[in-house]
């Protein structure tokens, strides 16, 4: 058997959004459809082009379970309140630290934000705020895991795979306000003191 015959066949599904195309890369894992990556379009490039570069050999196909998630992503990007299950994604492809960070980020509800530092404390690594930022910058599942809900401690946006304009737009769709300097306005941080 060669390596190609034991690799699962990767498949893509594309959805449109106000921010450009979104590509979902998926394959079967232990007989279940699982998402490997979600690619957002950015100012630097269109998701379909990045998908062709990162995953040059992909079938364009879907199934009911992946269609539901892709439709949910499209609906979310259009401003609707959609909550995603982590059952559809391959978190096992992440390091234990990144998985902990992604699970914590997934726990931040719509209309709430946290800081990289508070998430670090929440996952038991209080001095790892920068590492949390890196884990979120490499989130393979943006939107499913809403990494736009993490900002810097000074309330500035920080980075985002879709770019700062998309991050701000997503937060605004969730009811988060901004001051004149472009910093989020919050009364209480998620994972902050009660």
Write the layout of secondary structure elements.
Elements: H1 3-6, E1 11-15, E2 22-29, E3 32-40, H2 47-54, E4 59-60, H3 64-77, H4 96-106, E5 114-115, H5 116-122, H6 129-137, E6 150-151, H7 164-173, E7 177-178, E8 184-185
Parallel strand pairs: 1-4, 5-6
Antiparallel strand pairs: 1-2, 2-3, 7-8
Helix pairs in contact: 5-6
Which key terms come to mind for this protein?
Double Stranded RNA Binding Domain; Arc Repressor Mutant, subunit A; 2 domains; two-stranded parallel sheet; disordered N terminus
Gyration radius, in Å: 17 Å
Overall geometric form: globular
CATH fold assignment of the largest domain: Arc Repressor Mutant, subunit A
CATH homologous superfamily of the largest domain, by name?
Winged helix-like DNA-binding domain superfamily/Winged helix DNA-binding domain
The quaternary structure here is single chain
The assigned CATH architecture of the largest domain is Orthogonal Bundle
Major beta sheet summary: 4 strands, mixed
Question: How many β-strands, per DSSP?
Answer: 8
Point out poorly predicted stretches: 1-5
Kindly give the count of domains. 2
Helix/strand-derived class? Answer: alpha/beta
Strand order of the largest sheet: 3-2-1-4
Number of helices: 7
First and last CA, distance: 57 Å
């Amino acid at each position: 058997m060669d390596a190609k015959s034991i690799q699962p066949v990767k498949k893509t599904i594309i959805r449109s959004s106000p921010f450009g195309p979104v590509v979902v890369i998926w394959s079967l894992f232990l007989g279940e459809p699982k998402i490997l990556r979600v690619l957002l379009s950015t100012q630097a490039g269109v998701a379909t082009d990045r998908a062709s570069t990162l995953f040059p050999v992909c079938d364009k196909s879907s199934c009911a379970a992946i269609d539901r998630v892709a439709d949910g992503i499209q609906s979310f990007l259009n401003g609707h309140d959609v909550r995603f299950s982590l059952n559809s994604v391959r978190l096992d492809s992440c390091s234990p630290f990144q998985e902990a960070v992604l699970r914590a980020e997934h726990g931040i509800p719509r209309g709430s934000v946290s800081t990289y530092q508070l998430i670090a404390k929440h996952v038991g690594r209080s001095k790892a705020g920068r590492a949390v930022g890196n884990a979120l910058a490499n989130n393979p599942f943006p939107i499913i895991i809403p990494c736009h809900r993490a900002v810097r401690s000074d309330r500035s946006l920080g980075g985002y795979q879709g770019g700062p304009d998309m991050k701000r737009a997503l937060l605004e769709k969730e009811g988060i306000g901004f001051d004149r300097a472009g910093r989020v306005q919050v009364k209480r941080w998620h994972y902050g003191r009660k």
